[in-house]
Amino acid sequence: MKTNDNPLLGKLLGIRGDLLRGDSLLTLVIFVVVAAFLVNLVVSLWHNMHFQEDLREKAAIQRMQDVGSMLAKSSEALMMANEMSTLRRVVSEAGLDHQFTSCSVTLPNIGIVADADPGRITVLKLPPTWPGPELEHTQVVTEDSIQLRYPLIISGRGHAILSLTAGIPREKVLGAESHTTQMAIACLALATMLLVHRHARFRLKAMGAIHDALMAVKEGDADASSLELDPQLGSDAVAWNQLLGERQGRQVRAAIEQVQDAISGKSQAAHELATVCDALPEGLLLLDTELKIYYANGAAGVLLRVGVRKLKGSAVTDHVTDHRVLDAVCKAAASQKAMPTTVDVTCEEGSLSTVLRFAVRPIRPEATGDMVMVTISDITQKKVAEAAQNSFLTQASHELRSPLTNIQLYVDKALEDCQEDPTGTARSLSVINRESRRLENIVSEILSIAEIEAGSFTLRRDDVKLDIMLGQLKTEYLPKAQEKQIGLTFDLPPKLPTLQADRDKICLALHNLVGNAVKYTPEQGQIKVQVGVDTGENELFVRVSDTGIGIPPDDVAKVFDKFHRAKDKRLAHITGSGLGLSIARELIRLHDGDIVVESELDKGSTFTMTLPITGEGLADGDQDRATMRSDLG
Are 152 and 75 in contact (CB under 8 A)? Predict the structure, then answer.
């Protein structure tokens, strides 16, 4: 359609020049701003390099001093409370989290009671008292490291030493690299703006015409043919013309639906309407004032389990027996002002249960007189989903309430004892910390389950070094196992492959398996974590075996179900959400692996986790025997 042939379109396209006015000036302003930014980066580069190096060194020293002061106070409180397991866990976590070269608590002339490396511990239990001189806080700063020593005063028992060592970062070119990157980004942004500006100039032509066309539609002065745009204006103009066509189609369909309100079995229109109604997934019944079925579609016959021919002309009471539905039908037939009514009816047939929803409302067709319309829908799956949702909310509320209650109780106790009983306060804070972690784990598990079931859970694959991950796992759970007098051993090969996987998700699955083994294994038990590579199956396996209480045969198949916990009286005092194993298996299956279980009651359980690996991830000697999986990154 040309502009000369359509005055209205010519007017619309003539206005587009106003939308482009001032475009060149805007482009010049943007270029000047970007150039000024680049000059400022070059001028400040040299100064920032030296300033950042000095600032990093001071920040590292100050950060280490802050961490050391807090760790010293915590260590004194834990040693006074004789909480040695918690002290070792705090020291170990501090060494890993802050990357200390060394982190330890030492009794002078006796030995090490806590260290970031559990293998260096020589004193497992504090003596009642011990000799030793009173020490002073010292700090030694060298070119590459800082060493801090804090005296710990254990009232009535003796003195201890907290020793910390950490390296000072020396990254002299970091500032230059950072500014160079910013300059490259700014240049790239400048080039991108040129391309976007060029593209936007063309797009504005069509957008200006569409804007004025919409204003014409709002005023009601234009029909669909006069609103069409020239397709040469681009994809926006083509999409606008398609939208106009759909609008015309909706207007035509609306007119057809108005015609279909009249039901007549003798006309072709009635036949077409009946065909459309038979295609509906919901059942449809039309009743006269005597409660006889005037019309029934195919879905109504299927849901009521009666042939359509038998339905037509019969009384509705012959096929619907629920008194609530019949009362609603009688009220609708007696008064056209009756409110629409919805009734859910449960139908039992053998072991199957179906829920049907009956919606009743009066209608007044002009040709046939007063009638009642009844629609029937199968909402069985919806009811099942609602029941599952209610069960989920109930279980989640129960699991969240327990740690919240404990946190509130011990917060009150800590507030009461903070002045008179520091030991009691430290114990309360320890409980609060443990319950907070438990609460955080429950919330994370619930969110993970929700994301997995919603299909929005995504994996962030990267190189995963198993030796580092398993070392951290051993560091975390070895003190817990020693506290329960459980033997925890790790059987690892000399060399482990590097996986392409989501590190956090694999770590979470391993924590659930080893954590459950420690939790459900009684004192004097044994736990073994065996890791290996099956080159024949081209997969990595992690086998966690314990001598715990085991799983009853009836519960083995349900152990991976959400919120499921075995009905063993010995589990009554052990807390848990029932989500850990379910989440662990789903995470491993997202990696194309699996988790299986073998268990014998009162003898123990073995959980085996398998993960596929690529040829690059295998040891050098196994490269030729491995096959690549095309679906792994």
Answer: yes
Q: What is the dihedral of CA 315, 316, 319, 324, to 10 degrees?
A: -140
CATH 3.40.50.300 fits 47-167, yes or no: no
CA–CA distance, 566 with 103 (Å, rounded to integer): 42
Q: Which CATH superfamily is domain 462-625 in?
A: Histidine kinase-like ATPase, C-terminal domain (3.30.565.10)
pLDDT at 610: 92
Beta bridge partners of 280: none
- Among all chains, which residue has been given the structure tokens 């038979």? 278
pLDDT in tens, 527-571: 999 999 887 778 899 999 998 888 888 777 778 777 666 665 565
Can you tell me which residue has the tokens 């194993």? 581
Q: Tokens 């539609």 sit at which residue?
A: 217
DSSP SS3 for 562:
coil
**Structure tokens given for 240:** 């606008």
Q: Within 13 Å, how many C-alpha atoms sit on residue 146's CB side?
A: 17
Residue 260 tokens, joined: 């279909």
**Alpha-carbon gap, residue 620 to 498, rounded angstroms:** 12
- Asked if the model's pLDDT at residue 633 lies above 50, the reply is no
DSSP structure class, residue 533:
E
Instruction: Confirm whether pTM is higher than 0.70.
Output: no
Q: In angstroms, how far is CA 346 from the centroid of its own chain?
A: 36
Spatial strand order of the sheet with 371-378 comes to 293-296, 283-287, 371-378, 352-363, 341-349
pLDDT for residue 179: 59
User: What sections of 134-286 are H helices per DSSP?
Assistant: 174-219, 235-259, 268-278
Query: What CATH number is given for 282-378 in this structure?
Result: 3.30.450.20
Task: Read off the pLDDT of residues 90-145 as tens digits, 9 standing for 90 and up.
Answer: 888 888 888 888 888 888 888 888 888 888 888 888 888 887 777 778 888 887 78
CA separation for the pair 367, 272 (Å, rounded): 18
Give backbone dihedrals phi and psi of 114, rounded to 5 degrees, phi first: -155, 140
